[in-house]
Every structure is written in C-alpha cells, then in structure tokens.
Amino acid sequence: MAVPSVSAEPPAVAASGGSVPAQSRAPLDARAVPARSGVPGDVLDALDVRPRITELRLSAFAGHRRAAFPLGPVTLLAGPSGAGKTTALMAYEALARLAAGAPLHEAFRDPLGCVPQRARPDAGGRRGFRIGCTADGVEGPVRLDVAVQAEPALRIAGERLTAGGVVLLETALRDPSRRAVQAAWHTAGSAPVTRAPLPDDRLGTALLPLRVAGKTDGQRQVLAAAEQMVVALRSVFPCDPHPASMRTPVPTGSGRLLPGCDNLADVLWRTRAECARRHALLVEALRAGCAGPVTDLLAEPLGDGTVRALLDRGDGLRTELARLGDGELRYLALTLVLLTGPGVLAVDTPGEVPDALRSLTVLADGFDRGLDPDQRRALLRLAGRMGERGHIRCLGAVSDGSWATRVRGVTVVHLDRDGTS
C-alpha cells in the first residue's frame, strides 16, 4: 500500500547525511534542567518544564523522504529554492492545527500536494504521506507519527504515540468503508489496553483527554504524554510580513497581530500603552535595523478611524512607515513578533495551560528576505536571546545559512534540492 504504516522506530539515515541520534529518557530532574551553554560565566537557567518540539520528521511528505530535522530554540532551515524549506514549515503548521483539534481538511488544504510525487497507488487506489515529531518535557521525549491517506478519501490511516519505549496510543484503518479508525491506548490495569473507535479525520492524541479516565498509572501516563505533545504543538505563529500592506493606515481592531503583519500599526497602538519596557526594547532594536536615528516608534490615530505608525527621529521629525524600505519593515515586524507573545499575536493557545508552562513557536518563512547583513544578524541575535528564555522558539527558512552557523543558540539545518539534510 502506498500509505506505509507508521513506525515507532527512528527514521533511517538520509541519503546525504546521518540520522539524528535518538534522545534517551533521562531522570526527571535531569530532563527539567537545561544544560549550560558552555560560555564562561553563564548562570544555569531556572527549571524549564515547558513542552517543546525537538524534532520534525517528514518520512514521506512532498519532496521529503525519510528526513528528520533537529529543532532547537532557534532553528534555520537553509537551502536553495526547491529544497523543501517551505514544505517543512507547512508540515509543522499542519501538525499544530491537528493538535488544536482541527479536522484534516483544515490542516492540509492541498493534501494531494503533500503526497510524494513518485508514490504509486496500491491495489485499492490509495496514496498518502507520513509525518511526525518529538516533543520533549517533563515526560521525556514523546514521539508522534501519523500516516495520512490523501486519496481516494482524506483520512488518517494510522497514528502512534510512544514514550520511553512504550506504545501509548496506536490507531489503524481496519475497515475502509467506515469513517473511523480502531484505536488502542495503554491502560496497564486489569486489561493492558483499551480499544475503541476514533474519528478518522482528527488527531487521536488530541482526543485522548476526552476518552481516557486516568484511573490507572498507565492511563495517567497516556494523558501526560498526550498533553505534553498537544501543548508543545499548539502555540504556533506562522509569520511572513507583507511590507506593502504595512505602509498604509489600518482600522483599529483587536490589537492582535496577523500572520502577514498587515495590522502592525493597530498592534503598536495597543502595545506602546500596555508595556513600556517591551516597547523600549523594540525601539532599541530598531536603532540597529533602520537607517537614520530612531528615538521612538509611535502609533497615531487619524480622523477616519484608522491608525498609522511613524518613526520618531528626534527634534520633532517623524517618518511614516510608507517611507521605509521593505527590509526595514520586515525587520520591524519580526522584531515586534519576537518581543511580544501569545497575548499580542493572533494564535490559538491552550488557555487551560499557564503562560509559564508553554512556549510559542514562530514559523518564519523567508526569515532573512529583504534584510541586509546587519539586519539579519541583529534579528537572529534577538531570536537567540528570546530562545534562551524559553518563552519563544523560532523555526525559519533561509536560502543561505552560512552567516548563521556560529551564532550562539542557533541550529542550522542544511537541505539539498532532494530534501535531504
């Protein structure tokens, strides 16, 4: 069959490089404490119990085959056009949507485009793709692997959630005529597993808290692992600023930044009044990325109900954003994203989880698009500083990552045109 069954084993070595070493399950106290950076004088950070995605696997997805990408606090996927950088970001975003409870057709808007081009249908005319990820946290590394059937009908063909060598959830499409998969989850009680049907268009891991009682140690392990995976995936903000839309005044609204940053002026109108400290950090960062002096960044309401943003140059001189270059506007928008958080960005966050126990992942396609060398270095250093704090992680795509290979706290994954690393 063209939709292979999911596997709990690590992906094999890619054609042009080695596989990512599997992470061992460490004791709780060792897992919760981040390692020192190795720089003399550094102070060990406080306990970090926030779930985080540490690996993205594209076992058979579009142009990727048996690919595994390690993800740190700041990760750049580097490679030429056609290497699959945007595809990898799309896969991450799709997993995040599934973890938030979205159906398959919302997570994968073009499922046939996700099927490897050379994948042949099986005897039943079925083709599909496989993706997965690993979430680390207090439960240790938790692996999720999903096989999706794209045709003749879009549905989940198999899913597996594992931790510590134990299969906690496994689903399989037993009867193609039914819109359900047969699921079995770890119980470790009077019966080793519990079996029940689950919908074939939703991620089973995200549904477990509604189906598992948590009465046995095994059930509690299942719930803890599922929660770690869902929390790690859900807080995602895909961001690709559109400079043309940022140059014109915008109506006042929710004050939550959109992925294209079109409503940046409205967000500045809100954030400048709410948090003077973060606004001061934003202005300081702009001095490194904008031409000419910068003493402040303002938002000014207009008589027609719109608001515009301006740079204060000092001595009463102000510059509208319309006069800034594309690189300056992208730098401004991405800096604002890194210095804010879920309360300002238009993201779906697990409201039942305190802010201190989750991190936001920014997906930045074309991270360095339009930026000059000084701007991209300043932006990457800011991303690194925010990543060290643990609240914001960043996964970006660049055409050339050589300039970033020696930046502290940054992981650069080089891709070839065949999608391997």
What tags apply to this protein structure?
27% strand; 17 strands; 8-stranded antiparallel β-sheet; 11 helices; alpha+beta
Give the structure's gist in a few sentences.
It is built from 11 helices and 17 strands. With 421 residues, it is α+β, with helices and mostly antiparallel strands.
Shape: elongated
Strands of the widest sheet, in order across it, are 2-1-4-5-6-7-8-9
Oligomer: single chain
Order of helices and strands: HEEEHHHEEEEEEHHEHEHHEEEHEHEE
Strand pairing plus helix content: what structural class? alpha+beta
Task: Give the radius of gyration.
Answer: 23 Å
Largest sheet geometry: 8 strands, antiparallel
How much helicity do the residues have?
25-40%
Strand content: 25-35%
Return residue spans where pLDDT drops below 50 for at least 5 consecutive residues: 1-46
User: What is the mean predicted local confidence, pLDDT?
Assistant: 86
Number of contiguous helices = 11
Number of strands: 17
Task: Note the gap between the termini.
Answer: 27 Å
Task: Please tell me about this protein's structure.
The structure is a single chain. With 421 residues, the protein is α+β, with helices and mostly antiparallel strands. Helices cover 27% and strands 27% of the residues. It has eleven helices and 17 strands. The protein has helices spanning 28-32, 85-99, 104-107, 111-114, 204-211, 217-234, 243-246, 264-274, 276-289, 326-339, 373-389; strands at 52-61, 64-70, 74-78, 127-136, 142-151, 155-163, 166-172, 180-186, 193-199, 236-239, 250-251, 296-301, 306-314, 317-320, 360-364, 392-398, 410-414. The protein has an eight-stranded antiparallel beta sheet. A five-stranded parallel beta sheet has the order 10-15-16-3-17, with helices on both faces. Strands 11, 12, 13 and 14 form a four-stranded antiparallel beta sheet that branches. Strand 5 (142-151) and strand 6 (155-163) form a beta hairpin. It is elongated and about 75 Å long. The two termini are 27 Å apart. 47% of the residues are buried.
